[in-house]
Amino acid sequence: MRSPHWSLIQYRRSESDSTHLGVLFEDAVHALPASWPENAAQLLDEWRQWEAKLRNLDVHSLQTLTETELIAPLTYPRKIVCAGANYSDHVQEMGGTVPSVPSEPFFFLKPPSTTIVGTGSDILFPEGEGVKLDFEAELGVVIADRCQGIDAAHAMEHVAGYVVANDVSARGLFHRGDPMAPAFAWDWFAHKAFDGSCPIGPGIVPAWLVGEPQNLRITLAVNGQTKQDSSTSNLIAGIPELIAAASRHMTLEPGDLILTGTPAGVGMPRGEFLAPGDVISVEIEGLGRLENRVSLRNRSLAQL
Hints:
By secondary structure, this protein is α+β, with helices and mostly antiparallel strands. Helix content is 16%, strand content 31%. A 7-stranded mixed beta sheet has the order 7-6-17-11-12-14-8. Strands 4-3-2-1-5 form a 5-stranded antiparallel beta sheet, with no helix packed on it. Strands 9-19-18-15-16 form a 5-stranded mixed beta sheet, with no helix packed on it. The protein is globular, with a radius of gyration of 19 Å.
């Protein structure tokens, strides 16, 4: 699978160190000049100022660093807007019907500062009975600037870059057996909002380095066994349509993250769910590889 040219990453030199903005190139971390913003959020808040410098960046001239720890490439977006049921094969595997004419996208939100973790970080198994932890490989779109009510024809002008994401879901917490009314039978909060449920990484690849984002291979493996293998060409609502639809309901801001949906192969239809110790690897062509391990809260795997 094609590797990224380079990507914007965040790193630390030690656990007590502050966050630094850098570049991941040829599997090595490179430092940006001291005059650059300290983190990705600051850079994205002034995206139009820094975009030209990024386009002209000579990554070969940057200092190579050792003994660094990658953290999430964006800490933190103001919003995480997630599209549900947006791949035709996934709709079918979940028992739904693919519309002959694309309907208005379905969205839900994840809380940013507590769900996002980076590559190499643990996904903490949620508390509760019958969690049924599932995986969802997704393409993430990073918004470049403040926009509201835009049309699809101009939506891509507002994209800063793309990132690999995993919309981890607690399927067993989704349906409530004692709703006050039918409208409250489906618990999107428990299902999607738990801590660490939105791994992203390893870095943000600027849009001009990606080319056509709707023709990228997307795969996910659990413990080395492939579960999802598809292409972003199978999106029902395309990236411009998703951005436009989201912007009709809320103002999008610099660094906002839009997750575009997941293809077929998730665990729910087969009753295959994640367990502590499992390693999930998500890879998108040209964007890199995101890898996380499932662990229990406040317990080491040696105690299992």
